[in-house]
Amino acid sequence: MEFLSSYCKKATRSLPRSHGHQWKIVEAGNYVHKENDKVTINVGAALVGVAAALLISACSSAPEKESAGKAESTTLSGPLVEQRWNLLLVGTDERVSLPATPFFQIGRDGQVSGSDGCNRFTGSVKLGENQRIEFSQLASTRMACPNMEDAKRVTDMLDTAYRYLIDHDRLVFFGPDSRVLGGWREAN
């Protein structure tokens, strides 16, 4: 601490002011001091203070260490998990015409798999508070089907799902704007 004190005293300067007054030398630790009509600045103490602030902010913004090779273990539970859901409606009342019934199933490990009625898909899902749901990293096969627009509407519903509501054997997805995206029925 004495080193800093002697450094700050050496770094303090006495500078002329525009009104003819002199800047006054002060002890370490005081950055600015006004006495009567004189303002006093300790340049060394100010520099040490700025350096300390930068050091502290650099330490607090350092990235966290990533765990070496260990992935976060996610275990999901609830009425959505380990249940097959078959598509009932797109939007509030539209039925789709596809070669197979679209469906999905969420595993306890946070993985989702299913079919859009034409192509199989896989991905990840996160379930949060207040019936929050988020599908991500959806990937699918690329088979051609007679009605690809309807198949895309199914996967778009999953991509934009924000919240869900379960009523008995029915599941409804809502978008971020609270608009109904579609409905699903629990498969027996």
Walkthrough of the structure:
This protein is an alpha+beta fold. The chain has a domain of 104 residues: Lipocalin, CATH 2.40.128.270. The protein contains three helices and ten strands. Strands 7-6-5-4-3-10-9-8 form an eight-stranded antiparallel β-sheet, covered by helices on one side. A hairpin with a 4-residue loop joins β5 and β6. The radius of gyration is 32 Å and the shape is globular.
Task: Give the topology, please.
Layout lengths: L1 H10 L20 E4 L2 E4 L1 H18 L23 E7 L12 E4 L4 E5 L4 E9 L3 E9 L7 H13 L2 E5 L2 E5 L5 E7 L2
Antiparallel strand pairs: 1-2, 3-4, 3-10, 4-5, 5-6, 6-7, 8-9, 9-10
Helix pairs in contact: 1-2
